[in-house]
Amino acid sequence: MEISGETTPEQVATRNEFALERYRYILQQIHTINENAYRFLAIYQTLATTLTGVALTLFVGYREWDIEPAAARDGVIGLLTLATVVAAFTITQITVGALSWIDYRNEECDITDEFVAPGFRKKPRPGNLIRWYETYMLAFVIISIVSMWLLAATLILPAIK
User: Fold this and answer.
1) In sequence order, what DSSP letters do the residues of 91-132 get, joined into one string?
2) Are the CB atoms for 65 and 75 separated by under 8 Å?
3) How confident is the model at residue 126 (pLDDT cuts 50, 70, 90)?
């Protein structure tokens, strides 16, 4: 440890080793965040497809099953509400993941600036959002849930009589 104001070779080696381990950890976290975004999108796709499939099945079969039209409408609305909750969860997780990615990426750039060379890695810029896959994942989730509600409101719910 530094007592006299001078840095010993052992301290330099320990600091470099610590920085390398931190860098490895950061890269692992970035990789995990990227994988998680795909997992959340897959969960959304599975649950949204299932819930809207059940809503369509209810719409097609409510007369045959002797379900009151009001109950069928409420069922469709309830299933779409559940799909919306799943969409909101997915949007939240992808957004939080992107923000975490930015933090880790900035820390990665700080480490490489100090231990490799200044400017070795460029920090993320908000202007690059158009190139981030999370942007398109979020757009897909938002567009799909809005489409489900619009189709239900214009085609399915009015047809339940």
Assistant:
1) HHHHHHHHHHHHHHHHHHHHHHHHHT-TTSSPPP-GGGGGG-
2) no
3) confident
